[in-house]
Amino acid sequence: MTGPAALRGLAEDVAREAAVLVREHAAQGVSVAATKSSEVDVVTAADRASEELIRRLILEARPGDGFLGEEGDDVVGTSGVRWIVDPIDGTVNFLYGLPEYAVSVAAEVDGEVVAGVVVDVAKQVVYAGHRGGEATRDGRPIAVRGPAPLAHRLVATGFNYTRPVRTVQAAAAARLLPEIRDLRRTGSCALDLCRVAEGALDGYVEEGVHLWDHAAGGLIAGLAGARLLVTVGAAGTEAVVCAPAHGFEELLSAVRTAGFLRE
């Protein structure tokens, strides 16, 4: 079956299993296995093992599906369903033992994300949602925070692993900071989006993200009452802006004025 609820159920099952595996790796000790875009953009053995497990479980259950994973898996399917996976979102936090990392699994049907699950691995919290349903945290409905003036909003951001992009981001963050309550940098796009969904943040903006970072969390945030825009950042790479729908345009204007986005 390819209904959104069924896909969400499978996503949750495999994401929970992957989270157990990631916790086991954390308990055994973590080391760098490779680097990607720069010497500080790391991959661990746990990233690879988590993606391998998720891919195997999904394709055993649904062998005709496609699969896109952060660590290199790109399987072309025949069913119209593609799985978009970040095996550990927040790998640097995972490496350092900071409890802000997640397993993110989303299902896309004919190009539209219809189901998503984000497991906060360290806290063992599960965020989930599917088209036609609600956004939930551990099975309970969640919703975005109520309206607030821009000066009272708590906004999360992040920084790229390449120097030219993070230089632009740092300048934009410095310009935005005086206009809002404060900035947070937790290190996981997926968890930041889920925290917008549950009302723990008033917004999120970051350049340098990828589809696997925001596919599941973006769906969950949207179901909880947020808007999400995928656009081009000031340094020329993909950027995401997310906030409750009732205050989205004001935050979008503020981050554009601060210099986060390409004009």
What's the topology here?
Layout: H1 4-28, E1 32-35, E2 42-44, H2 45-61, E3 66-69, E4 74-75, E5 81-89, H3 91-96, E6 102-109, E7 112-120, E8 125-130, E9 136-137, E10 140-141, E11 154-157, H4 163-176, E12 182-184, H5 189-197, E13 203-207, H6 211-223, E14 226-232, E15 238-244, H7 248-258
Parallel strand pairs: 3-5, 11-12, 11-13
Antiparallel strand pairs: 1-2, 3-4, 5-6, 6-7, 7-8, 8-9, 9-10, 13-15, 14-15
Helix pairs in contact: 1-2, 4-7, 5-6
Task: Please give a structural write-up.
With 263 residues, this protein is of the alpha+beta class. Helices cover 36% and strands 29% of the residues. The chain contains seven helices and 15 strands. An eight-stranded mixed β-sheet has the order 4-3-5-6-7-8-9-10, with helices on both faces. Strands 12-11-13-15-14 form a five-stranded mixed β-sheet, sandwiched between helices. It has a two-stranded antiparallel sheet with strand order 1-2. Helix 4 crosses helix 7 and helix 5 (189-197) packs parallel to helix 6 (211-223). The mean pLDDT is 93.
